[in-house]
Input
Amino acid sequence: MSNYIQLSNNLDQLKLTKIKEYLPAYLDDAISKDLSFVDILLELTNKEIDFREKRAAEINLAISNFPFIKRISDFDFSYQPSISKNQILDLASLRFIESFENIMLIGSSGVGKTHLATAIGIEASANHVSTYFIHFQSLIAKIKKAVAENKVDHFVKSYAKYKLLIIDELGYLPVDKVYASVFFQLVAARYEKKSTIITTNQPLSKWGEVLGDPVLANAIIDRLIHHSTIVKITGKSYRIKDKLIDIEQQVKNFEPNP
Output
């Protein structure tokens, strides 16, 4: 067996996929361009690192459970003048994660809360921050299951581990106090240790009604907002905007019969 074949087999065994892929071209360059051994190794290892980082980012994105892929660049700030673009860009820099701070996105349905939360989460995931997105009602369903199976501690540990946890749409349906108390345990476990993004259509003053206990709600709010950025969105619904655009387009395309 030639040394080249043995080298190729070794690269397979070590799972150095990109080095093997680019090796023939770089060996040719070594001859034609008089590249040094160090230059070749540097270029090949850079290719391998780039490939692995890209693959890791794709895997992180897949397991983060995002409902869709949307970026900050996709957000129409001109339609929501109540939002500071600079503030959102600063949040997307992920400084808040290094400080274990939270983000509260508060506003009525359709104003872009989930879009912004997802976009920030995608940025975090791309930067190798363990991130998980979950709808609040799905979280409550998992809490119910954990309570029924006497696995509350396991549940809390499972969701306390993420450096960034995004909980979407808190407030659309009321929650039994028993399950709200487990939610409090999760919030308390993450307090000043991890970052959480919450989107809600309810003002904080209404959380007592949503969570079935004003005292418990205040304890949750206290831990969430102690180190947090609160973004209140008061604009119009994007869904209505998109619907109006569709209607306008249909009107333009309508040609009455002569």
Observations:
- The chain has two domains: 3-64, 72-241.
- The chain has twelve helices and five strands.
- Strands lie at 102-107, 131-135, 164-170, 195-200, 228-233.
